[in-house]
Write a structure and sequence with these properties.
heterodimer; A: Non-ribosomal Peptide Synthetase Peptidyl Carrier Protein, Chain A; 3 helices; 0% strand; B: Rossmann fold; 3 domains; 5-stranded parallel β-sheet
Chain lengths: 101, 580
């Protein structure tokens, strides 16, 4: 799979679909680029963010065949980090995967 | 199990919040609400006497090094006496037993080690340092300590981890959130917990209806003839069909009934079942069949009715997707699994189905298939003998009356909680609740075993009585539908009335509590000879008179009741001889 933004965001959507199985209907996360994940308006608490990180790393490995580490910079430390929205996460994945290839 | 959600306490030394989320948001029945015990407080939560809501379920999943400290030492390659470790395991089991006193059902996981744990290499299955050697013994000790505790059920999470593959364990998730297992393991755990609770609630499926052509064997018997079917032999497809039949036979041996619904000529299909040399399943293995050209949904409904089973007890297996879709649409309560096109997957697909899981197996369960075959012979005789009285007499029915004891309590509890049609009050009680109730002052529980010349139907009836001054109340009157209509009902009344008369009671009352399913019980009582107060829905009998026991039934007390038993000398034999 090509390490481009479109493929990266589809990986994130798969992760969100998995996370939504853990959530009630009304609390499900909208699979859209602008959906806020972490931070003041984010949909995820720290446990859900941990699950997002681990699932994303697994699915990136499956999709692109490379290992990435989303915890290298403290993911809980900054609300302006790459886990802020679906869009920023997809961009971050694209960059990390390109660095690996 | 529809209705309010069941409260499940998740007790662990790691973070089970994600499992709780899966349990609450999975739409499969039963609906659950999860309460996660405080982190790192598994044992204190088990021991906590207050604050735990009664009637809930507990799911206990711990890491071995955490709750068995000596095993933690062994993981560090420190010498620890095996006896000390096993003593800690027994202590842990005692905590579980203590928790069970407050909680209706407790599900306990055996212990595992993460897949990245390589152990001590070649030493790992050796004494004294082998950690896997120790873990095997610990799990056996735990199972041994808990297997006879009513309401405690043991789950083995290794399957969950194997099915999750390389993502089963996640060190990163552990360091981030104190949860060692990946999402796939937790999803599977949630499925297994729900499956276990359905099983405990008596919702296991009891009947597998199978198609024949290209399902039980390869080929169309009506076209090819039984000699040319693909079954067994030196043929990978034939071997796969034979293995599928062996798997079905295994289910039959554990009490799941088998039946056939096939579009075929009956004589040709039965000939194949009888004559094919490599056929594993023979006609006598099936509790019934509908081999004709009718709609399969109608045939399945008829089979279920014939076997006195609800459609929610039925699984239908057919290679043909059109037939599957038809049955799903017409009979939504019947479980129709998607069936693989690849024949080599038939046996493994069936083996993986969890809908037949029973929490316990009684002798009655194990011999259920034989009982239904015997019932078929009985019905055959009924058709041959025109007068019902002659037919009943020809059965030579024998009823043995027992009190509640350690050997029958599992079956009595099962009958209590599974019987719907001939059930006066439809009380549902756990084993502990039943034992406690029956041990109360002035109460009596009689259990009835029924057999006849065609076979043993096992423990199939229960009567409970409560004496209060001159009035005796029949609290429960329960009879399995498999022996209904053979004068066992009247025999149970005769036993109960004779007992009450000997206790100097003057009147026996029985309150009928209607449900959606127990109309047959009311109909029996209406013709029983008891007087009926319709406004109060109470039947009553003047104990100045005995009850005429049916002459077609020979009743006696079980010898193990012993001379000290209050039942001894009750003279049921005489009652039974009193005639009708």
């Amino acid at each position: 799979m090509l390490p481009d933004y479109e493929n990266a965001i589809s990986v994130v959507y798969k992760v969100l679909a998995e996370l939504n199985l853990q959530r009630s209907r009304k609390a499900r996360i909208d699979p859209s680029p602008h959906t806020a994940l972490f931070g003041a308006d984010g949909a995820l608490d720290s446990l859900a963010l941990s699950n997002l990180i681990v699932l994303t790393e697994q699915k990136v490995q499956e999709a692109f065949g490379v290992e990435i580490d989303l915890t290298e910079d403290d993911p809980f430390g900054s609300e302006n980090g790459p886990l802020r929205t679906v869009d920023t996460l997809a961009l971050h994945i694209t960059n990390l995967v390109k660095q690996q290839l | 199990m529809n209705g309010a959600s069941i409260l499940v306490d998740l007790i662990s030394d790691f973070n089970l919040q994600t499992l709780g989320n899966y349990l609450e948001n999975d739409e499969a029945e039963p609906q659950l609400s999860a309460r996660v015990a405080p982190y790192g407080q598994a044992i204190s939560t088990l021991l906590k006497p207050n604050g735990r809501e009664q009637g809930s379920v507990a799911f206990v999943w711990t890491s071995p090094a955490s709750v068995i400290p000596s095993f933690g030492e062994a993981l560090q390659f420190r010498p620890v006496a095996e006896d000390a470790i096993l003593a800690e395991v027994r202590q842990f089991a005692e905590y579980i037993v203590a928790a069970k006193e407050r909680i209706r059902s407790v599900l306990v996981c055996t212990w595992t080690l993460p897949d990245w744990w390589r152990g001590h290499g070649l030493l790992d299955l050796q004494k004294p340092f082998g950690t896997r050697n120790l873990l095997l013994k610990m799990n056996l000790e735990l199972v041994s300590a808990l297997q006879d505790v009513a309401g405690v059920y043991i789950l083995d999470p290794r399957d969950w981890m194997q099915s999750a593959g390389k993502n089963a364990h996640s060190p990163k998730l552990w360091y981030l959130s104190k949860m060692p297992y990946g999402a796939e393991v937790l999803k599977r755990a949630a499925q297994e917990i729900k499956s276990a609770l359905r099983s405990i609630a008596g919702q296991a499926r009891k009947l597998i209806v199978v198609d024949l052509d290209d399902t039980l064997w390869g080929g169309v018997v009506g076209d090819a003839g039984w000699e040319n079917l693909r079954l067994g032999g030196h043929d990978h497809i034939g071997e796969a069909y034979a293995d599928f039949q062996r798997t079905l036979k295994g289910f039959r041996n554990r009490g799941v009934l088998l039946a056939v619904a096939s579009k075929n000529e009956e004589s040709i299909a039965l000939e194949a079942l009888r004559l094919h040399p490599e056929m594993i399943l023979r006609p006598e293995d099936f509790a019934g069949w509908r081999i004709n050209w009718n709609d399969k949904a109608g045939n399945i409904a008829e089979l279920a009715a014939e076997l006195n089973l609800g459609l929610q007890s039925v699984v239908f297996i057919d290679d043909n997707p059109v037939e599957r879709a038809r049955v799903r649409e017409a009979l939504p309560e019947v479980l129709v699994p998607e069936w693989p096109a690849d024949k080599t997957l038939f046996a493994s697909t069936l083996s993986q189905m969890d809908c037949f899981d029973a929490p316990q197996l009684t002798n009655e369960d194990l011999s259920r298939a034989e009982m239904y075959v015997a019932e078929g012979r009985r019905e055959g005789l009924k058709r041959e003998v025109p007068r019902v009285e002659d037919w009943l007499a020809s059965l030579r029915t024998k009823v043995v009356v027992e009190e509640l004891n350690s050997s029958n309590v599992v079956r009595v509890t099962q009958l209590f909680n599974k019987t719907n049609q001939m059930n006066l009050s439809t009380r549902r009680l756990t084993q502990n609740e039943l034992v406690q109730w029956a041990g109360g002052k002035s109460r009596k529980l009689f259990a009835f075993r029924v057999s006849d010349r065609f076979g043993d139907s096992g423990l199939t009836g229960i009567v409970t009585l409560e004496l209060n001054g001159g009035t005796a109340s029949m609290v429960d009157f329960i009879l399995s539908c498999r022996v209904m209509g053979r004068k066992v009902e009247e025999t149970m009344l005769a036993v109960a009335i004779e007992y009450c008369r000997r206790q100097q009671a003057s009147r026996l009352i029985a309150e009928y509590v209607p449900t959606a399913k127990n109309k047959p019980c009311q109909e029996f009582w209406m013709r029983s000879g008891f007087a009926y107060d319709e406004a109060q829905r109470v039947f009553w009998w003047d104990l100045a008179q005995g009850y005429p026991a049916p002459s077609s039934v020979a009743a006696e007390f079980a010898p193990e009741a012993g001379s000290a038993s209050p039942m001894r000398g009750l003279g049921v034999e005489c009652v039974a001889e009193a005639g009708n």
